[in-house]
Amino acid sequence: MQDNQLLRYSRQIMLPQVDIEGQQKLLDSRVLIIGLGGLGSPAAMYLAAAGIGQLILNDFDQVDLSNLQRQIAHDTDNLGLSKVESAKHTLLRMNPEIQIETIGHQLVDKELEQEIAASDVVLDCTDNFATRFAVNRACVKTKTPLVSGAVIRFEGQITVFTPGYDDSPCYNCLYPDQGELEETCVRNGVIAPLPGIIGSMQALEAIKLIVGIGQSLRGRLLLFDALTMEWNRMSLRKNPACPTCG
Fold it and tell me: 3-state secondary structure string, the chain?
């Protein structure tokens, strides 16, 4: 690790749970972020700042004016630009030492599996069930840890799935695959800071998984009500009859 890296990451390195060894794990890691919107923006920014060595950014949308209320990786100057390129510019201004790969089309089937298999951790920052189930199936097949977040209106949730590890449930254990629902931010709205709260926690869970510290949210679902500022916790168990991981 070079002197400038020791200085840049000094506040993390001084943590005994991280130290130089943990920081090196971050620098050597590869994280795939699927969705560079409200959740993916803060998650990507904190992972870049923390020193994740290689970030893979996947999104096939362009920056729209309605995005800027909450998608903090993008700004007015980047309207019309692809979200992955907009986010890449922002992240490299924050930390020019990391490697960033952009994928500006929807990952499906074999390509999705290959990208997930090559990653240490996957962050699901999407806003539709079809993509969530596809990502979950690929993570289960490749045994890749998955950090899942979701927000709508004033409500957020986050959990971690670690396929192949003990009795970890998967996303399909939590939600049955019954087609797309009408519960999206486009249709229902979302308060601006909420994706930042959940997206930041996704970045934190990814860092913990990579470094190997603390207790992850595996087997636990955190639910956040922004109107009352209350957190609730649900226990998640593996469903023996799950069509994906059972």
Answer: CCHHHHHHCHHHHCCCCCHHHHHHHHHCCEEEEECCCCCHHHHHHHHHHHCCCEEEEECCCECCHHHHHCCCCCCHHHCCCEHHHHHHHHHHHHCCCCEEEEECCCCCHHHHHHHHHCCCEEEECCCCHHHHHHHHHHHHHHCCCEEEEEEEECEEEEEEECCCCCCCCCHHHHCCCCCCCCCCHHHHCECCCHHHHHHHHHHHHHHHHHHCCCCCCECEEEEEECCCCEEEEEECCCCCCCCCCC
Q: Report which listed range, 97-101, 162-166, 237-241, is most confident.
A: 97-101
CB atoms within 10 A of CB 153: 15
Q: What pTM did the predictor assign?
A: 0.95
Summarised one tens digit per residue, pLDDT across range 140-197 is: 999 999 999 999 999 999 999 999 887 899 999 998 887 655 566 667 889 999 999 9
